[in-house]
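Thread title: Can someone regenerate the structure for this chain?

I was given the following input by a collaborator and told the matching structure tokens would be attached. They weren't. Posting the sequence so someone can regenerate them.
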Amino acid sequence: MRLWLKDSERRPDPTPVKTDDRKAIIVGMALWLVALVLLLIFAPQLMGEAHQWWLYACVVGLALGLVALVYTNHLHTRNHK
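Best answer:
Regenerated them for you:
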């Protein structure tokens, strides 16, 4: 196996696939929201067993998803002008 190829030996790079990353982010946020709702239903048991950090994990997942959604939406609108 060779670790280095000359430029003349390289194959051309494939064309990039057009994707809409916002859909994947929205699906992920929806899953975090479902998890949060389910955990809120069982909140008394979570508090008794010291697992309340699971609630915070869902909230942080939603917040990071929102940041990612704003960022990718900004990139999407900037690239399509």
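The mean pLDDT is 89.
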